[in-house]
Amino acid sequence: MKRQMPSTKELEREIKDRVKSMFRKDFEDATEEEIYRACAEVVNDVVIDNWLTTQKEFVKQDPKCVYYMSMEFLIGRLLGNNMINMRGYTEVMDALANLGVDINLIEDQEPDPALGNGGLGRLAACFLDSLATLQYPAYGCGIRYHYGMFKQKINDGFQEEVPDDWLQTRYPFELQRSEYEFEVKFGGWVRYENQPDGSTKYIHEGYNSVIATPYDMPITGFDNGMVNTLMIWDAKPKEVFRLASFERGDYNKAVEDMNLARNLTEVLYPNDNHIQGKELRLKQQYFFVSASLQRAIDKYLRYHNDIMRLPEKVVFQMNDTHPTLTVAELMRLLMDEHGLGWDDAWEVTTHCVAYTNHTIMAEALEKWPEDIFKGLLPRIYMIVEEINRRFCEEIKAKFPGDDEKVHRMAILADGQVKMAHMAICAGFSVNGVAALHTEILKNVSLHDFYEMYPEKFNNKTNGITQRRFLMHGNYKLSDWVIKKIGRGWITDLSQMEKLTMLLDDKKSLQQFMDIKLENKKRLAKYIFDHNGIAVDPNSIFDVQVKRLHEYKRQLLNILHVMYLYNQIKEHPEMDFYPTTFIFGAKASAGYENAKLIIKLINNVGAVINNDKSIDNKLKVVFIEDYRVSNAEWIFAAADVSEQISTASKEASGTGNMKFMLNGAVTIGTMDGANVEMYQELGGENIFIFGMSSDEVIAHEKNHDYNPVDEMNKNPHIQKVLSQLVNGNYSIDNPELFRPIYNSLLNTQCTERADTYFVLKDFASYCEAHEKIQEAYKDREKWARMALSNVAHVGKFSSDRTIQEYVDDIWHLDKLELK
Ligand code: Z15
């Protein structure tokens, strides 16, 4: 039976009782942190009952389930999310209010679990939310990093990285499960023995190993009693006891094992869309893949006896190439631990694993040096060699005489292990994350593979959860929508379509814009408290928040701001609607160009914000430490959403959808999921600019783009570029931004200048912004555009995405819950 949250009155008492029993304090004397912990336990009580029920039904109904394999789960804070999904948010809010406490301050005590970098990790979290809400059995499998995504401090305009010690105090929503520990082995060598029956036995020796311990986190569905599990793995040495003994021979090994365990899960690599190829990263990958597969097979064999039928109950979805070792490790477990021969093991593996590609950026494609790979994973390497041998035979048979092709497609080539090639070879499904992205995979970046296995390729356009990004982040708009069209949209976002009936209703449009203004005031206060900058809530809030990457073109945005500033200064009388440009972005710690762009944004802000002569027409704000928790407020307050990547480079984008859900209007390129937003919205409700992906790809192919031509054509560009290097924005060090200038204009030996076509799209971007200015001045017209965005957002729910994964790839059974 589904357990419900207590009533407001009961909650008041329970929270007070908890504070007393946990901290031996009267409520009046408790700190906000203690109240948060008490609330977490009150909510946990309900969650745990539902978790137990779900797991019992799971055993009884024996449905097929998905293991979502991912190096990242950017789940964000759970207290608020769980209260919403258990339908007790308002009750807890009221209970706390009756006790004289603001729920926001309590939620703010929770560390923001940041076990991910950006889009890819957040997508995994939205998927788990939707799976539970749609009642599909699912496990998230990942790593319990002791330090998640770093906290960003801005110091003198520069980014500084501060470790994110989220486990400093006990995290209330995780549960250690020591009963599901498994050993994971690294290094050593493989010996083989021929058996009397003609088979070969492989014996792994001389290895170091760690014990993998899972921590389970509950993933609650919305109002349905379903609770799935996110298992994140931590490592501990297995030899601690022997270390204390006098077995001298083992002492050194024990020390090695301890160090291995200590480093393994210490920290998340802070790169988004970029791979460093460090051995420790490969260790992390194997560690969580091996542990997760062992647990999955164990669970399967507890209730079934025929391992050949594993694909009927289990599917492993590989989130990008990071967990591709799933292929080889599953083969190893099936053969070496469960006695299958190669062909049977391959039959099972290729029916259990599927692969999602999230990028076409070359620097994000994982390739491991063969020697590192072989040294760390000797048995796995043997298996990869055999997979590769058979795969190359298959290519030769299909395309006789095309040796070039075999070389291009091989898993092992040029001294490297190519993870994407292995994922495609073994996976029964290969999907992109937006329609355009999937077409580019098929026609360009994975064309060889598409020719070989056209039936494997399919598209699954990304989505987001409306529970977190509207109900929790923007409760004012959420309540308003409920008043207008009821509650159906909470689990069926296509019902937002009903809002179209309000598009010509002046009163509704006014209410809608009043809510936006309230949300802008909330953000303005946040900005004042954190940045000391007073921004006008009546100005246009134009927002770009996402990881800092050159292809995402934050540089185009800030160059345009510099241009606007020049215009306003040169033509003080010009008609300009006051605009606040808001940025938020973390740069990977070693990404110098990206870090310099952060500094540029801050310096431009410092000059513009302090220039009294422009009458507050322009403000530039850089929000420090952009993360899930402040993102929710930022989306709610945005008028304009900047989605301006170089066409073809952003696989999908998901921030674009979160803005749309909150009634912001997009200025964007025809890239990623922007294309599908455009299709849903019609051209009047979105501002599209810039080159198409075909044009970009053609320029890249023909090498016929010269940014100097763009500069020579356009005096505005000339002026802005000269201001990059004349000290305008860096008086003490005029050369500071020279690297940015050079990246736009000076052809390096390795790369063309202006790799991401910033100058090429500049003029068209300026025009699009002029149209926004025009549109915003007509307040009613703007309201209609913004509300149209909410009304047409239905497609972009992760509920829709998950249903497509289930129908086309996973074929899961729903769990029945009373
Ligand atoms: C990442 O955040 C994404 C792709 C990657 O390959 C890596 Cl390593 C990290 C992003 C894409 O850039 C973004 O366009 C997409 O929306 C997101 O994954 C989820 O699919």
From TrEMBL:
One of its GO terms (biological process) is glycogen catabolic process. GO terms for molecular function: glycogen phosphorylase activity; pyridoxal phosphate binding. Its cofactor is pyridoxal 5'-phosphate. The modification N6-(pyridoxal phosphate)lysine is found at residue 658. The keyword Protease does not apply. NCBIfam families: P_ylase (TIGR02093). Phosphorylase is an important allosteric enzyme in carbohydrate metabolism. Enzymes from different sources differ in their regulatory mechanisms and in their natural substrates. However, all known phosphorylases share catalytic and structural properties. This is Alpha-1,4 glucan phosphorylase. One of its GO terms (cellular component) is cytoplasm. Belongs to the glycogen phosphorylase family. Keywords: Carbohydrate metabolism, Glycosyltransferase, Pyridoxal phosphate, Transferase. Its EC number is 2.4.1.1. It comes from Pseudobutyrivibrio xylanivorans DSM 14809. InterPro entries: Glycg_phsphrylas (IPR011833), Glyco_trans_35 (IPR000811), Pyridoxal_P_attach_site (IPR035090). The lineage of its organism: Bacteria, Bacillati, Bacillota, Clostridia, Lachnospirales. It catalyses: [(1->4)-alpha-D-glucosyl](n) + phosphate = [(1->4)-alpha-D-glucosyl](n-1) + alpha-D-glucose 1-phosphate. The keyword Oxidoreductase does not apply.
